[in-house]
Amino acid sequence: MSSKPTITIAGLPVARGFAAGPVFIYRGGGEIPVPEYLVEKGKERAELLRLTRAFNETRRDLEGLIAVLKERTGRADVRVFECHLMILEDAALVDETKRYVMEERLNAEAAVRRTADGARAQFGRMNDPYFRERVCDIDDIERRLQKALSGFDRGPGMEMHEPSIVVADDLTPSETVQLPREYVLGFATNGGSTTSHVALLARALALPAVCGLGNITSRVSPGDMVLLDGTNGAVTVNPDAETRAQFEKVAERQREFAGPAPAGAAPAGTLKDGGEVLVCANVHPGVPIAGVKEYGARGIGLYRSEYLWLNREFEPTEDEQFEAYRSAAMFASRLSEGSYATIRLLDIGGDKLVRGISAKEPNPFLGNRSIRYLLSHRSVMRRQFRAILRASAFGNVRLMYPMVSCVEELRDSATELESTKRELESEGLDYDRSLPVGAMIEVPSAALNADEIARYVKFFSIGTNDLVQYTMAADRGNDAVAALYQPLNPAVVKLVRMTVEAAKRAGIPVSVCGESAADPVVGTYWAALGVDELSMSATYIPVMAKVLAGLTRADLDEYAKVPDSMPHGSTAQDVFNACHDWIADRLPELRDSLII
Ligand code: PEP
Ligand code: MG
Q: How confident is the model at residue 30 (pLDDT cuts 50, 70, 90)?
């Protein structure tokens, strides 16, 4: 038994499941700290040596990167880094930095920061946009130098030695995928919410996660034993034997209930009367997709291609992309009759930032992201089109545009896609001539204009993660506004309803691929509104399948009316509770599993 007191900290249940293990505190995130101090008199030469070593190490890294790139990609990719190398070797900049150390006795990190700030100010003042953009290069070079000085990349933050619960302030997608997967038992973070990327990745990895824990990083110490309950949103620190035994019992019951359906069961998504709502999986390349089949996914409803870009300094080549898309297409085509992989084009921006690619923007969630980024980087778009089109010759593929906000984007993308097809034909390369192209509906303007948008596409997929965020003006990753993050807010419901109705009028299928599809209460509500497909983290499929299997289409029609019967003044939480109770009354055996 532990001698430390047992405490329980409540948070947001963001990825279902239970895990017990020691704490590993990850402190890597965000900016590399830049310490600033005066070097002791007489120690300037030693500091200069540190600085010179950092310059040398950075130069070697860049040279190595350039050599690899030359082998693997075109010249354009290399030029950026050749330019970085030139700046790094610029005698004036190097001398200035050395002078800060030798004459002003600044430590190496602060000297690098001072030089970089000077260069940033100088470039930032220039009228020529080309030179203004060089500010990003300076940021990049400075980051490399600071990394070399702090040893950041060798990752004190990432070094795990035993299976542990990762406790962090917050985790970006790149940090989450960099952690050694074999040692991660689950996540507990100060910030974050249901649709933050750590939550989505935890679900994809079938790991439990609790977010919005406030200050858990300062309430636990490395090695403390914790019980992580991602189903109810609680972390128990230093549990006594009785608490632990109780936890294991609940965990075991849940594991049985939420596990894959037995062989011979009806396909996931079959309703009680034989009707069907297609239930598919969301996948992240780089995160194993093996569980997708066993949990019963009928296809891949969302393939987040941007994960191929994370944690690298350069765009994956067309061939690398092609290999990844082809294997997803082949895998998805084998899942069920007519099943497909819905490959979403590069959705970077917002909180999915890619080093070396994402520009610094004052408001990245409203910036040059996703389809906007692609339309302003046509060669990136065309390479991705080529890879997806080529993959479509090997399995059923659907191509999907992220963050569509107006028809011009679809018109311009279609022009680019058609010309890419002609290019492939002229090279004698095969692709699916009837490849369906769809739009994500995740910006309110797209939902409001869904009838027009439908003229340009063959399917819709509603991204509720972003649709809720943009409709409610509530950051999807910020636990401080988690209460405003309301998928069943009447405003969001209206937009979803409009989108579904527009799809029906246009005769095209519509899915929901935001995580609300995985919520037994909310996902069932989308199905009741007439959504044809629900796509979610695969581990959430079994429970959703059980709910759908207990209801007929007539039940769903009745369920769709539950919010309409609420008295004036009802909140989104009241609506959720009423919907929850409606299902729990019909399917009492599922009552304990209806909270996501
Ligand atoms: C969404 O916004 O609902 C969605 C599925 O896309 P992502 O979570 O990758 O932004
Ligand atoms: Mg989105």
A: low
For residue 155, pLDDT beyond 60: no
| Residue 587 near residue 517 (C-beta atoms within 8 A) | no
Number of other CB atoms surrounding residue 297 within 10 Å: 29
Q: Which of 307, 506, 321 is nearest to 397 (CA)?
A: 321
Predicted model pTM:
0.76
Percent of the chain's residues with pLDDT above 90: 60
Name the active-site residue from 84, 280, 284, 513.
513
* pLDDT tens-place string over residues 364-380: 899 999 999 999 999 99
Atom of ligand 1 nearest to the CA of 464: 3
- Return the ligand 1 atom nearest residue 469 CA: 2
335 φψ region: left (φ > 0), alpha (ψ -120 to 50), beta (else): alpha
Looking at 427-538, list the stretches that DSSP marks H as alpha helix, in order from N- to C-terminal side.
444-448, 450-454, 464-472, 490-506, 520-529
d(CA 352, ligand 2 centre) in Å: 10
Domains in the chain with CATH codes: 7-29+155-257 (3.50.30.10), 44-150 (1.10.274.10), 278-592 (3.20.20.60)
- Determine how β-strand 12-15 pairs with β-strand 209-211: antiparallel
Q: Which residues pair with 8 in a beta bridge?
A: 236
List the shell of residues around ion ligand 2, using CB closer than 5 Å: 442, 463, 466
